[in-house]
């Protein structure tokens, strides 16, 4: 877990806990940072080649059947199947 300390309206800091979660558990509209890929295989290699790498910030543009996720980054959209989305771990940005 990571602890952030955002400023409150009174100039004080309030601790916020941010946890990693599978991309498939993110919600439409969330902005996330890719942390890591669990597992491997051809699907992960293709995502890496497309630019979806650890550290990349992207937004969740839509959710599909079976846990599929549509992500936006750098003017691109990628559709990621539910099984692969469960292996991509992300953190919410700006939480």
UniProtKB/TrEMBL annotation:
Residues 21-92 form the Ferrous iron transporter FeoA-like domain. It holds the Pfam family FeoA. InterPro entries: Fe-transptr_FeoA-like, FeoA_core_dom, Transcriptional_repressor_C. SMART domains: FeoA. GO terms for molecular function: transition metal ion binding. Keywords: Iron. This is Ferrous iron transporter FeoA-like domain-containing protein. It comes from Pararhodospirillum photometricum DSM 122. The lineage of its organism: Bacteria, Pseudomonadati, Pseudomonadota, Alphaproteobacteria, Rhodospirillales.
